[in-house]
């Protein structure tokens, strides 16, 4: 691949090689590649194939996590400012955005919102579920969760976690506003840009 390398790990390979007392030739011979290639990898001049990188890492007995731990530390942080939260209102239910998704669907991605349900209001569907998992914690008020054919009562401080592929409905059974933090994974992208 031509152009600037996005992630550089060559210096780590060189440091480990030198600490173990291996020469460029030692590593190149065992990996069945040229000394020049090993040198270029260590100087971040070329990006090796996955097979070559794994082979060199094995020769040096380098943990793969060590090679890429800096990469993980450079991930994007998403912040939703209180005054810039998106809000969606549907009948007696308000969804206040607490997380921003980058648009990529990943198994570990989540969508988080502050859920507010007026007395008598409800969120969900008695007929259908959707793929994924849900977690909620009731901040204020009381609720009834209908999950399949089961019924659960929730009060302030209670939390619930369940597979969301079963039909489910959260209903405000109290006389005051129900507030909850709600997490869905994978995201349903309620707040699309």
From TrEMBL:
Signal sequence segment: none
Lipid biosynthesis keyword on record: no
A Gene Ontology cellular-component term: cytosol
Record's keyword terms, sorted: DNA-binding
Any one Pfam family match given in the protein's UniProt record, by short name: Cupin_2
Alphabetical list of InterPro entries matching this protein: Cro/C1-type_HTH, Cupin_2, Lambda_DNA-bd_dom_sf, RmlC-like_jellyroll, RmlC_Cupin_sf, TransReg_Diox_bact_type
CDD domains referenced in this protein's UniProt entry, alphabetically: cupin_XRE_C (cd02209), HTH_XRE (cd00093)
Superkingdom of this protein's organism: Bacteria
Any one GO molecular-function label of the UniProt entry: DNA-binding transcription factor activity
Domain HTH cro/C1-type: 13-67
Protein name, as recorded: Helix-turn-helix domain-containing protein
Annotated organism of origin: Desulforhopalus singaporensis
Lineage of the species this protein comes from: Bacteria, Pseudomonadati, Thermodesulfobacteriota, Desulfobulbia, Desulfobulbales
């Amino acid at each position: 691949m031509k152009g600037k390398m996005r992630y550089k790990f060559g210096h780590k390979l060189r440091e480990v090689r030198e600490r173990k007392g291996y020469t460029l030739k030692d590593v190149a011979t065992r990996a069945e590649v040229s000394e020049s290639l090993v040198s270029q990898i260590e100087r971040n001049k070329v990006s090796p194939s996955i097979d070559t990188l794994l082979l060199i890492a094995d020769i040096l007995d380098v943990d793969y996590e060590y090679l890429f731990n800096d990469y993980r530390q450079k991930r994007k942080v998403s912040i939703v400012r209180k005054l810039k939260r998106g809000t969606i209102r549907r009948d007696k239910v308000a969804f206040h955005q607490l997380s921003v998704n980058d648009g990529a669907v990943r198994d570990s991605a989540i969508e988080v919102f502050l859920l507010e349900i007026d007395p008598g209001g409800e969120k969900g569907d008695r007929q259908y579920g959707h793929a994924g998992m849900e977690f909620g914690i009731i901040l204020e008020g009381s609720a009834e969760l209908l999950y399949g054919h089961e019924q659960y009562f929730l009060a302030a401080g209670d939390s619930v976690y369940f597979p969301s592929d079963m039909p489910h409905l959260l209903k405000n059974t109290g006389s005051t506003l129900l507030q909850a933090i709600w997490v869905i994974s994978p995201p349903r992208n309620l707040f699309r840009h």
